[in-house]
Amino acid sequence: MKKGFKFLIWLIFLFSLLFLVLFYYYINPEETNLGFTCSFKEFTGLNCPGCGGQRAFHFLLHGEFWKALQYNIFIYFIPLFIYLLYVIIEVYLFKNKKFQQGFIFSKRLGQIVLIVIILYTILRNIPCKPFIFLSPPK
Q1: Residue 101 lies in domain
Q2: Which of 11, 15, 59, 84 suits a disulfide with 64, CB 3.0-4.6 Å?
Q3: How many structural domains is the chain composed of?
Q4: DSSP structure class, residue 23
């Protein structure tokens, strides 16, 4: 793969990340209509695992960690998600041998992550205490 193409991909990745950080720093999805609407919630009326994530990210960027946690607990896994995205780009797009040897994502780990996400989605939609605390504030 050409070095210029790899540089361009990383440049696009970094500028996209920077754009998202600046966008959610200056735009509060709670006060404007500029955020994305959750299709799952719109069709079912239920919270998906990502519901409240945009508002949580906004509050996290402003140092309001407790408020971010109230909107979506998964917001604290963003650094891990960004790192995994980085590794996936290196492994699958650039076929980087160094990352392929160290990249361990077993079938079992994938199943555990999927189960956690499904359980979180189910629990945050139970309308009684203590589960209502998993749903984003209205």
Answers
A1: 3-134
A2: 59
A3: 1
A4: H
